[in-house]
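Structure tokens please, single chain.
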Amino acid sequence: MTATMTDAPPPAAPKAADAPRRSGRSLGQILMIVAGALLLLAAVRVITGSNQLDSAGQVAAALGLAVPIGLAGLAGLWSERAGVVNIGLEGMMILGTFGAGWIGWQTSPWLGLLCGIGFGVLGGLVHAVATVTFGVDHIVSGVAVNLLALGATQYLAKLFFAGGKAAEAGGNPKQSPPADSLPDITVPGLSDALASIEKHHWFLVSDLAGIAGGLVTNLSVITILAVVLFVGSWWLLWRTPFGLRLRSCGENPIAAESLGVNVYQYKYAAVAVSGGLAGLGGAFLALVTSHTYLEGQTGGRGYIGLAAMIFGNWRPGGLAMGAGLFGYSDALQLRNGGVTVHALLLLLVVLLVLLAGWKLYKKAHWQGGVSLITAALVLLWYLFTDEVPSDFVGATPYVVTLLVLSLSAQRLRMPKADGMRYRKGQGK
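Here you go.
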């Protein structure tokens, strides 16, 4: 993502022949990171006795917090892979929360879900008209969408929820009446068996049981839909001709145009899908998290979704890991407070030592030394305290996000034409 725009044509896109090799290394790295994280988490749980670190309840809460962030990040991925920076994700999520809450309480949550997606698509189309058709700066257009969405929903909430049947049903100028719940799914038998294994607190075995139990107990249908959308987006964007054409619009639209690709059409499609995904994330907040529209309930998740997308290097797998990391840290501080968050300090010490070793191996002595000093300070903090102060606990997810982004910044590669203005025939 970039805050500066230029009309200069982007450099040529990388050769397609390199893609399989990069994809294979990426998958192997992801598997190694997941396995290492599980082992470290299990070890920290045993050492500290904080059994809530990876319990089924913790995983379920983390998943619920990660889904709207992941959907916002996936929305940004679709848009930016086509070359359109989408700062307006927050506004599109706000539109989704209002649409889902407004229609959800009057009819059914299923129609509310569709309305939330539709409202998000409308926000995406506004952004597409401004950036693709009229060439407005992408950042300016995104900020405008956020402001317009916030103002419009506040006005409509006062108009539709402050009186009449809505007020009698519990509505007011800042929230809608409650909507019915969408169904949850629990795998019968398996959920109870995993809970039984988790209670034994065996090293790694109980940790895996707790994680798996959180993934098969009281699972929202929107969560399942989100997983399908992640897998489907990966397949569609990286394994089909449609996806190749769309990504070419974000890498080199002039070259794509020369090969007969309708760049405007693909950009519009990508931004519309982006708005729909962001609206779905907003609908999740309104129909699953709180069962009602609340003013300000997005809480900046659109921006956090963008951070998760950047952490994931504009790819669905990495994006899912980033969203899961934020959801996990947020759920940890909400459910357990400073005592359990204190246990994470030990995990942070291990990660900083590993980082220091890697930097020293790469001859980055200054960075390695700073990492070692930081690890020593965090270790002292862990040894001489029993609980993290409440002021620091609330900031845990944001600190984790900033730390991960800073560590991963060196390997990022955004689409080459991301945020650049495009005009048909400009390469002639």
